[in-house]
């Protein structure tokens, strides 16, 4: 009896996941890409392609967030005098470029 309930719960969960991936409108170009990925045998189903794509997006976003955090940490750690010197150099360089620009 418990085994039947577990099987039923698994079936319901599977159907809910299937409905979610079937409800995603990818447009013609991405639909064709997904269909080709399944036809080629690389993926067993449309849902597997969508899961992999979402996983890749999550990993990309996580990596980008870590990169952004590292940049902000380094900016915060920079001494104000360093930033001021860099700003002065940029202003001088822009002034030199403006002086050389033909009118």
From TrEMBL:
<dbReference type="InterPro" id="IPR038296">
    <property type="entry name" value="ParD_sf"/>
</dbReference>
<protein>
    <submittedName>
        <fullName>Type II toxin-antitoxin system ParD family antitoxin</fullName>
    </submittedName>
</protein>
<dbReference type="InterPro" id="IPR010985">
    <property type="entry name" value="Ribbon_hlx_hlx"/>
</dbReference>
<dbReference type="InterPro" id="IPR022789">
    <property type="entry name" value="ParD"/>
</dbReference>
<comment type="similarity">
    <text>Belongs to the ParD antitoxin family.</text>
</comment>
<dbReference type="Pfam" id="PF03693">
    <property type="entry name" value="ParD_antitoxin"/>
</dbReference>
<dbReference type="GO" id="GO:0006355">
    <property type="term" value="P:regulation of DNA-templated transcription"/>
</dbReference>
<keyword id="KW-1277">Toxin-antitoxin system</keyword>
């Amino acid at each position: 009896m418990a085994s039947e309930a577990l099987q039923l719960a698994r079936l319901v969960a599977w159907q809910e996941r299937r409905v979610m991936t079937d409800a995603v409108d990818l447009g013609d170009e991405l639909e064709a890409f997904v269909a080709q990925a399944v036809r080629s045998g690389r993926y067993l189903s449309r849902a597997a392609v969508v899961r992999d794509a979402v996983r890749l997006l999550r990993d990309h976003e996580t990596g980008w967030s870590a990169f952004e955090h590292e940049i902000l940490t380094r900016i915060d750690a920079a001494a104000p005098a360093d930033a001021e010197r860099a700003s002065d150099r940029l202003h001088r360089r822009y002034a030199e470029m403006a002086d050389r620009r033909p009118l």
